Amino acid sequence: MTQAVLAKRRAALLALDARPRTGREGGLLDRFDERLPFELTAGQQEVSRAVLDDLAAGHPMHRLLQGEVGSGKTVVALRAMLRVVDSGGQAALLAPTEVLAQQHYRSITAMLGDLASAGMLGGAADGTQVVLLTGSLGAAARREALLDAASGSAGIVIGTHALLEDKVQFADLGLVVVDEQHRFGVEQRAALAAKADGAPPHVLVMTATPIPRTVAMTVFGDLETSTLAELPAGRAPIQSTVVALAENPAWLDRAFARVREEVDRGHQVYVVCPRIGDGASDGVDSPADVDESRPMASVEEFAPMLAEGPLHGLRVEMLHGRMAPDRKDEVMRAFAAGRVDVLVSTTVIEVGVDVANATMMVVFDADRFGVSQLHQLRGRVGRGGLPGLCLLVTSAEAGSPARERLDAVASTTDGFELSRVDLQQRREGDVLGASQSGRRSSLRLLHVLDHEDVIAEAREVASRVLADDPDLRAHPVLAEEVRRLDESEAAAFLEKG
Length: 497
Prior knowledge:
Structural class: alpha/beta
CATH superfamily of the largest domain: P-loop containing nucleotide triphosphate hydrolases
Strand content: 5-15%
Number of helices: 17
Radius of gyration: 23 Å
């Protein structure tokens, strides 16, 4: 029955009209490709072809782009955005944090150069504008960004949740790109797509490590899925080691010694804590098996303690979500420029932060983080061709579920394998609902990893039955069950997913 509903949804999506975005000869995309300083990998070329084909079709694209940390998803997404701009439309890129939105803005404007500065001194005459819209913008800058989006002069609008506000309007929103989609609920993603006037926009969602619900939906075939498996040249391997303090408390001293060794080699180090100071955690995806009785390491406690103690003499700075946006940006720029040796941070550096000289990360209370989050965090090191090291510090006992989870993360750097580990531990969430992980599931009899073959066969049968009998006239019992589920509140999330 669930497969029949999904098959109906896929057919309904194909039946919707969307404005084909076919681009133009010699446009922004062609000019961008000409100046790319590197060759696209074979995977990037293949996925780009699939995405551009989707954009040229007469129905809305609904595609998931999976790719390891650093696999080059942003370049694929940017090429899609330029195709839409070349077709007279606009693209919006939704990022979960201001740090990531700013990083995207800087990297995209740098890649585009004068093509991103239309109407400005030194800008290309036939370029476009790229604007940033976040909650911390001053009133004047915000008014200007809103006007650029509403008038259509900004072909690419990059922002955080601020993009979802009612005041944000677009002249012709043709493509919505959602980065790190597991940080957004289905309703938030739908809210941005609803800003398109008339025909629904094309939607591209990106993730480095799928969360359980996304894995389940992918297995069920609701999304077209593309995968970037190979890493571009220059990415180095990352060694991950569990520092088990329950059995070996002296290992902590060795961890600090390794930090000094790394800095002595001219490199930089991240130290990640789950908490800012007193009070709640900062964006931590805590698993259900966490021992809440143990106090969590905090940035405000650890930064001065490290600077005055084991890391005395090194340049230590802190970064967390409660800092003023200008101060956060100042610290990140200083770290990127090499003026900070050790950055003590919360998960605000989880995605999008790209400092080639950072080669080591120490994650305190690593058992407080989910599998996907740990994989994302360690992807911040090893980005400049130098081997990376990630130390997962924990007080969790050997044999506990928390230690098993950390051992799994340390044993592989394959994000897709880790997504299966995550799915086994947290279950798939409600496939036909808003829940993002497994507190409840509409799959009463099946578990997606144990029954992938059954699910795949059901998908084929449902598609075949509906192709021959769209109204299910020959299957009245199935038709009634499908109608019930199709009209339920839960099924409505399929349209938004």
